[in-house]
C-alpha cells in the first residue's frame, strides 16, 4: 500500500451502470481521483464509514497497478504488473448534490476509507484477464459481477487517455469502472471481493 502513488478512477465505463444511474453515456473516459487517505485494505477487519452523510454505495472494480512509467509505445502487459479487486465507495446523496451544483465529486468520492482494496496479485496478462469475472458478495450473496470485456473504454484506451492527459507512472493505480448492481451498504454488512472464485479480500462495514 505504501508504494501506491496516484489513485485514478474511471466513471461510467459500463453501459448498464450508466443506465441504472440515469447518466449520459460518455464519448470519452470520465476520470476522477481519490485521496491517498481513502485507501484501506480489505484484510478481514472492520472498516468504519461515515454514518451521517446519507447512503454509502458500493461499486466493485478491477484495479490495476502500474509497473512502469507510461509511454505510448508500451503495451498494456508491459505497463501493468499487479491487479486487485477494489471498492469505489460513494456518498451518493452528497454526489447528487454536487452534480446538481456543477461542483467536483471529491467530497463524495475521496473521503477516508472510500477506496477499499484487496491484496494485489500478479497481473496474468490482458488476454487471460478477459477470461475471468470479478465480483462482490455481501453477506454471501453476489450483488455485482463484471468482466473487463464489458468496458466501453478498454484498458489500452484508459492508459493512453490518462497517460496523455494527466500523466501515469510507476506505482499509480487505476480503478477501471464498475458494472451494474450498485447499492447502499448497511451496518455490519460482510463484504467479499472476488476474482473468479478466489476471495482476495474481505471486510465488515461499520456505520454506527
Provide a brief overview of the structure.
The protein has 208 residues and is α+β, with helices and mostly antiparallel strands.
Q: Would you kindly provide a written description of the structure presented here, covering whatever features stand out?
A:
This protein has 208 residues and is α+β, with helices and mostly antiparallel strands. It contains six helices and 16 strands. It has helices at residues 15-20, 76-79, 92-101, 106-109, 126-129, 155-165; strands at residues 7-11, 30-34, 39-41, 43-48, 56-58, 60-66, 80-88, 90-91, 115-117, 121-122, 134-138, 141-146, 173-175, 183-184, 190-195, 198-206. The strands form three sheets. Strands 1, 2, 3, 6, 7, 9, 10 and 13 form an eight-stranded mixed sheet that branches. A five-stranded mixed sheet has the order 4-16-15-11-12, with no helix packed on it. It is globular. The two termini are 27 Å apart.
Distance between the termini: 27 Å
Mean pLDDT, as a whole number? 95
Please state the structural category. Answer: alpha+beta
State the order of secondary-structure elements, H for helix, E for strand: EHEEEEEHEEHHEEHEEHEEEE
Strand content: 35-45%
Note the total helix count.
6
Name the poorly predicted regions. Answer: none
Shape: globular
The major sheet is characterized as: 8 strands, mixed
Which percent bin holds the helix content?
A: 10-25%
* Rounded Rg: 16 Å
- Strand count: 16
Amino acid at each position: 500500500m505504501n508504494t501506491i502513488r496516484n489513485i485514478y478512477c474511471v466513471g461510467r465505463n459500463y453501459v448498464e451502470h450508466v443506465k441504472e444511474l440515469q447518466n449520459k453515456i460518455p464519448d470519452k473516459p470520465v476520470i476522477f481521483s481519490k485521496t491517498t487517505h481513502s485507501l484501506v485494505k480489505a484484510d478481514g477487519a472492520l472498516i468504519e464509514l461515515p454514518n451521517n452523510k446519507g447512503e454509502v454505495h458500493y461499486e466493485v472494480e478491477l484495479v490495476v497497478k502500474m509497473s512502469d512509467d507510461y509511454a505510448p509505445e508500451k503495451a498494456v502487459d508491459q505497463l501493468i504488473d499487479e491487479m486487485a479487486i477494489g471498492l469505489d465507495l460513494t456518498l451518493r446523496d452528497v454526489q447528487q448534490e454536487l452534480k446538481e451544483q456543477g461542483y467536483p465529486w471529491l467530497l463524495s468520492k475521496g473521503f477516508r476509507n472510500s477506496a477499499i482494496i484487496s491484496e494485489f496479485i500478479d497481473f496474468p496478462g490482458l488476454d487471460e484477464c478477459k477470461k475471468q469475472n470479478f465480483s462482490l458478495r455481501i453477506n454471501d450473496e453476489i450483488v455485482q459481477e463484471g468482466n473487463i470485456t464489458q468496458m466501453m473504454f478498454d484498458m489500452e484506451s484508459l492508459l493512453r487517455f490518462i497517460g496523455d492527459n494527466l500523466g501515469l507512472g510507476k506505482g499509480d493505480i487505476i480503478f477501471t469502472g464498475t458494472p451494474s448492481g450498485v447499492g447502499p451498504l448497511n451496518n455490519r454488512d460482510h463484504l467479499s471481493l472476488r476474482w473468479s472464485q478466489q476471495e482476495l479480500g474481505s471486510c465488515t462495514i461499520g456505520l454506527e
